[in-house]
Amino acid sequence: MIALVSPSTNSSSFLLTGFSGLEQQYPWISVPFSTIYAVVLLGNCLVLYVIWTEPSLHQPMFYFLAMLAITDLCMGLSTVNTVLGILLGLIQEISLDSCITQAYFIHGLSFMESSVLLTMAFDRYIAICNPLRYSSILTNSRIIKIGLTILGRSFFFITPPIICLKYFHYCRPHILSHSFCLHQDLLRLACSDIRFNSYYALMLVICTLLLDAVLILFSYVLILKSVLAIASREERHKSFQTCISHVCAVLVFYIPIISLTMVHRFGKHLSPVVHVLMGNIYILFPPLMNPIIYSVKIQQIRSRMLRLFSLKIC
């Protein structure tokens, strides 16, 4: 059984952790972080604007890219208030309810990004391995259903452990490990029975992030097999080019997650600054890099953005 207590006993706040020992440099550190958040917000909004206003981009591949941009945009918005709030000296603490809400969106959006990347891998598999049926398989109605399924999968299954956080008794020092809230961070401070949350969270990670990674890898094995069977070298090169941006997005998402996990598991002797830095990379690196990757690697996006900027200059 989960040991529950009245929510009123958890009305206290939690101390957010910035870069310990570098408090005097916070005004300078806030400059690159503010720039990163500005690029995250503007870059993803620009991608969405280009896809929305360019009729030639109203295709399944770009609809999924728009889902990815929305996810990255929301991830930036979910953490900007605490990360920049600490660096600018605006906040130091966060209430339990706000912390739980932030953790819900951070984890939900992480699962959502993984699901979107899996869907994009499926899109590339159909486009390369079964191009004649591409438009009949990925119809607009089916894309809407896929989007709703991704949304439900990402936020429905994380609800039970997040709700439990509200009723745990937190008797350890209310000091978080990062400048934002994570489920595992709150569990570390709880004195209640957390076995349900621990096992549930582990199964959730296995059934989402790990399963998605395996399915993405499997889809690319099939894609590689299909591409190598193409006789024309030029066609092989063209097929590979359509996948490069997605492969980069997958690496940009999974490498920070693996790195942060390794730091938490084996880096207890490392400076707290390293943990905070890795946490911020996990949160900010994918939303920062994805608009850049797709703007550089996808010719339709790149040409539309160049045309947009040329009009602004003129």
Automatic annotation (TrEMBL):
Keyword annotations of the record: Cell membrane, G-protein coupled receptor, Membrane, Olfaction, Receptor, Sensory transduction, Transducer, Transmembrane, Transmembrane helix
Subcellular location: Cell membrane; Membrane
Entry's Gene Ontology BP terms: cellular response to lipid
A molecular-function term among this protein's GO annotations: G protein-coupled receptor activity
One Gene Ontology CC term in the entry: plasma membrane
Topology of this chain in the membrane: Multi-pass membrane protein
Domain G-protein coupled receptors family 1 profile: 43-294
Membrane-spanning ranges: 29-52, 64-91, 103-122, 143-163, 199-223, 244-267, 273-296
Predominant localisation class: membrane
InterPro entries, alphabetized: GPCR_Rhodpsn, GPCR_Rhodpsn_7TM, Olfact_rcpt, OR51/52/56-like
Domain of life: Eukaryota
Function of the protein: Putative odorant or sperm cell receptor.
Assigned protein family: Belongs to the G-protein coupled receptor 1 family.
This protein's name: Olfactory receptor
Organism (species): Bison bison bison
GN (gene name): LOC104983668
